[in-house]
Amino acid sequence: MANRRLPAAWQLAALLLLPLLLAAPRAAAQGSGSSSNSNSTGSSNVDMTAAVNAATAENLASGRARAAANTSFTVPPPPPPGWERARASWYGTPKPFVDTFSPSRGGGESAFGILEWGGCGYTNADGSMPFPRDAVTSFADTNPDFPGSCGRCYEVRCVNGPVLGRNDQAVPAEYWYYFPKYGSAPDDMGRSFPGNPAYKDDYVFVTCWDPSKSVRVHVVDICPCWYEPKGEPPRAQASCCYTNSTNPKSGQREMDLSFWVYEQLAHPMYSEMMLDIRPVDCGSGAALPMSPGYINRDTLYDDMVTTGWSWFPYITPTHNFNVTAPGWGYGGSAAACAEVGPGGGMTWWCRGCNRPGYQPFASASSVSFWVRDRYHPGTAPPLKMMIAQQEDDTYCPGEAYLTSLTPSARGEDGWLQFTLPFDSTFNCGDKKSTRDKISFQSVGGANTWFCLDELKVAQGGSSSSSSTTKK
Ligand SMILES: *[C@@H]1O[C@H](CO)[C@@H](O)[C@H](O)[C@H]1NC(C)=O
Ligand SMILES: *[C@@H]1O[C@H](CO)[C@@H](O)[C@H](O)[C@H]1NC(C)=O
Ligand SMILES: *[C@@H]1O[C@H](CO)[C@@H](O)[C@H](O)[C@H]1NC(C)=O
Ligand SMILES: *[C@@H]1O[C@H](CO)[C@@H](O)[C@H](O)[C@H]1NC(C)=O
């Protein structure tokens, strides 16, 4: 029986990291989207009616007075070809910046989120991550190119102008935690807030430090539109809802940049800024197609988890695992290593990749990898390998027990390579195309400590007829 639950540490972390905690600590009103005494006057203007109505309702409810809102302003021109307009908030707990705002914000400093233990994995047991904090982001799960976004890189630039939401209407300033209302703090570089000239008009107008500056970020976390925290009622996080919400904060591609990315583009006292973004190769920076988003179907691990794949170890009683262990890989490279208890293991999951346009195993002909048992180098660790779809939690019926297979190659230092024909090993049948997870699970009775490297999928196979089982 496969164990599919992530360890408690990850779940706890998931509660803490959500950038959406940046939302104001009160219930958001829903915009009516109708009834108006004003209207937009052309394509360069925006109808704020729904947002204003909603904000007014919210203020009436809270007893605060509100001046008549400015419903007309110029929106920035659309992004150049190959780029998409998006919006960003920030997360991370930058000190001393948050000291100024934490008391009014509520929830303690951890409410500003942490970069580690994100929804893509990528965190070593000691809390270190393979990417610097000034190059990481979270990505909303309703963004159109969300599938396989873990590990994907985007080039991001700030766009001068109003912060927009649903139907490209300006979001009333106080729908966010509106920093300037509660204090003033310089960013890490000592720069003070350049101001919001539109506050009198009830929205946030961002002045970028330099709209031509771009930063390349790795997606390491997820911002769920529909959030189901453990032990709390599920709720919508409107900021991360690209579609399907009537909340004024919804309707935009959302990227929650790390604070240390955000402050390179604009002052962090702006709760949000608009961005131009485009997916790029993490190494060269060359542009990649926007939709469907790029995923690596051929190599899932080589020194690091590749684009498209989240990585998690599970059941790790000794708290000993590394998404990259430099020098511990095949031939002295880096490997993914974990010491797991009985029933524990490691998984590669391409999130959302059951969807058309992604489907990493649709034409898989074989899977190969190098593995090393650190307690018994040169022998196959007691692992079984499975193919699954995480979204509906179904597994292909075939399982590969490494101890009963013959390695396809033996390397120095006790490394073994296995090469498994995809169809005859896993028997996914007509469900093959919608599989998006590979897991290596211990079938041993004691702890197993293993390292994996060069996990690859050869493409070019076809499916046979069989079916999946729900386990
Ligand atoms: C706004 O203007 C458009 C086009 O001029 C019109 O179709 C629409 O009904 C107007 N909306 C309101 C709320 O007045
Ligand atoms: C609306 O806001 C814009 C930008 O802040 C400002 O230039 C304009 O004067 C405002 N209009 C009114 C009627 O307040
Ligand atoms: C959109 O709303 C419908 C109806 O409430 C719901 O069934 C569906 O799950 C929602 N989709 C998302 C992505 O939230
Ligand atoms: C992870 O890395 C740390 C620090 O380099 C090391 O002490 C530990 O043994 C490693 N564990 C695994 C499972 O790779």
List the helices and strands and how they pair.
Elements: H1 8-17, H2 49-62, E1 84-91, H3 97-105, E2 136-140, E3 153-159, E4 161-162, H4 179-182, E5 205-206, E6 214-223, E7 226-227, E8 235-236, E9 254-258, H5 259-265, E10 273-280, E11 299-301, E12 310-314, E13 321-325, E14 335-340, E15 345-349, E16 364-373, E17 383-389, E18 394-395, E19 400-401, E20 409-410, E21 416-421, H6 422-426, E22 437-442, E23 448-459, E24 469-470
Parallel strand pairs: 1-9, 2-6
Antiparallel strand pairs: 1-10, 2-9, 3-6, 3-10, 4-5, 7-8, 11-23, 12-15, 13-14, 14-23, 15-22, 16-21, 16-23, 17-18, 17-19, 17-22, 18-24, 20-21
Bound molecules: 2-acetamido-2-deoxy-beta-D-glucopyranose (NAG) (4 copies).
One 2-acetamido-2-deoxy-beta-D-glucopyranose is lined by residues 70, 73, 197-198, 201, 205.
Task: Please give the count of helices.
Answer: 6
- Unique bound compounds: 2-acetamido-2-deoxy-beta-D-glucopyranose
Gap between N and C termini: 7 Å
What name is given to the CATH topology of the largest domain? Barwin-like endoglucanases
Q: Could you say how many structural domains there are in total? A: 2
CATH class placement of the largest domain: Mainly Beta
Oligomer: single chain
- Biggest sheet features: 7 strands, antiparallel
Inertia-based shape: elongated
Order of helices and strands: HHEHEEEHEEEEEHEEEEEEEEEEEEHEEE
> If you average the pLDDT, what whole number results?
85
**At the fourth CATH level, what is the homologous superfamily of the largest domain?**
RlpA-like domain
The radius of gyration over CA amounts to 24 Å
- Segments where pLDDT lies below 50 for 5+ residues? 1-69, 461-471
The proportion of residues forming helix, as a percent range, comes to 10-25%
Strand content: 25-35%
- What is the annotated CATH architecture of the largest domain? Beta Barrel
Name the structural class.
Answer: mainly beta
The strand count comes to 24
InterPro entries: Expansin (IPR002963), Expansin/allergen_DPBB_dom (IPR007112), RlpA-like_sf (IPR036908)
Signal peptide: 1-29
Protein name: Expansin-like EG45 domain-containing protein
Domain Expansin-like EG45: 117-287
